[in-house]
Amino acid sequence: MNEYYDVLVVGAGPAGLAAAQAATSHGARVGLIDAQATAGGQVWRHDVRHAAPSLARRSIGGALTHSRVDWLARTQVVAVETGSLFVEDPRRGSRLDYGALVLATGARELLLPFPGWTLPGVTGAGGLQALAKQGWPLAGRRVLIAGSGPLLLAAAATAKRHGATVLGIYEQAGADAVRRFAGSLWRWPAKAIQAALLRGQLAGVPYRCGSVVRRALGDSTLRTVELEGPHGIEQVPCDQLAIGYGLLPNVELAQLLGCELRWEGAHPQVSTDIWQQTNIDTVYAAGEVCGIGGRDSARVEGAIAGHAAAGARSAAMALQPRRRHARAFAEALRTRFALDARVYALATPDTLICRCEDVALSDMDGYTDTRSAKLATRCGMGACQGRICGAALAELGRFSGGGQRPPLFPARLSTLGDTDFFPLATIEE
Ligand SMILES: Cc1cc2nc3c(=O)[nH]c(=O)nc-3n(C[C@H](O)[C@H](O)[C@H](O)COP(=O)(O)OP(=O)(O)OC[C@H]3O[C@@H](n4cnc5c(N)ncnc54)[C@H](O)[C@@H]3O)c2cc1C
């Protein structure tokens, strides 16, 4: 299949949905792609048991039901060429040509290895949310939430709504940093209301600052979590640990396209101008792929990108004050929830760093670049293609992630063979 879109949007989270709606308001024909079966991205992930918030329903409905939007669910970008994306859905591979492309590929969790992090019963904080929303049973389970940032509150609220007993939220940032962050929320009233609502839903759940998970202990499953807090070390028996150390932009597609990146600590994000345009004229980027900023920032950047990609810069210009205001929140998040040195020292030599291929941290000794470590140990060669272990190694200061080459995700051979876009003959032996 070959299709042409005036504006092609990758990612149907808040940024991509806003981009699609903005572009159609100028008459553009829009293609909206997402690897997931339902639109909404991370924050509005479809919940099989609970209705979506009204803003999510309006945003999703507004974009997907528009006659000029083609909604391409369960569609993953595999490879790129100037002006085209090669995608795969459950049935076939296709080529999608575009006048302008908007990358709204969002973010994923940063997972930092510690002893026991691969035990059944241990997941990311957002990972637990995703499982619960997809119907994984949590009722009656004792859940401990840990790591850093406001996502912990959202994860705890989801777990509680799905019937879990939330034993506590253990935030690694110190009490002073958290207090200052909370004290600055009046500048973003919508965030202040969101935080107050979450605290209301979590009444009675302890929130401990300056606390780090040292180990997860168990046999065939998690039994106990060992924490280090301001009052020393404690062990908490539980069934489930949900732990996340913040988010990382999904820049792989942007990298493959040749977009310029800038670095925030150990991790890259896509660099754009005020129109959300990258260094490539036809490629725009919006939302968390441009740096972690939350839902509101993603929505306004998505709208700017959609207007600009459809050639309506005056509409995009009108949104600039909202964008600056929303991005200031991102800066507050970054400084107040900076990671404590303790979290970098938790992995021991035999802690698995690559859980897809069972590679231990000590197996990385002696390697100074991703490629040689990967070739010798298979680290990063599993299902996640280095998205988890590569980010962890960069964060631990070992070495940063390498470049990208197609296929971006493991793809079916039939898909690759279907097209001259990615001829099988080019695959190296
Ligand atoms: C696991 C997780 C849970 C979160 N939960 C919350 C929460 O409860 N509350 C909250 O306020 N914030 C939450 N966040 C933060 C959230 O990411 C943002 O606030 C908001 O969703 C960002 O919007 P976005 O549109 O930039 O990206 P996202 O919402 O992340 O959307 C990006 C979309 O792009 C798709 N995609 C990415 N790459 C490709 C590709 N190559 N091909 C096809 N599709 C692709 C993804 O499937 C995804 O649907 C969560 C983040 C994560 C990682």
UniProtKB/TrEMBL annotation:
<dbReference type="Pfam" id="PF07992">
    <property type="entry name" value="Pyr_redox_2"/>
</dbReference>
<dbReference type="InterPro" id="IPR023753">
    <property type="entry name" value="FAD/NAD-binding_dom"/>
</dbReference>
<protein>
    <submittedName>
        <fullName>NADPH-dependent 2,4-dienoyl-CoA reductase/sulfur reductase-like enzyme</fullName>
    </submittedName>
</protein>
<keyword id="KW-0560">Oxidoreductase</keyword>
<dbReference type="InterPro" id="IPR036188">
    <property type="entry name" value="FAD/NAD-bd_sf"/>
</dbReference>
<dbReference type="GO" id="GO:0016491">
    <property type="term" value="F:oxidoreductase activity"/>
</dbReference>
<dbReference type="InterPro" id="IPR051691">
    <property type="entry name" value="Metab_Enz_Cyan_OpOx_G3PDH"/>
</dbReference>
<feature type="domain" description="FAD/NAD(P)-binding">
    <location>
        <begin position="5"/>
        <end position="297"/>
    </location>
</feature>
<dbReference type="InterPro" id="IPR017224">
    <property type="entry name" value="Opine_Oxase_asu/HCN_bsu"/>
</dbReference>
<dbReference type="InterPro" id="IPR041854">
    <property type="entry name" value="BFD-like_2Fe2S-bd_dom_sf"/>
</dbReference>
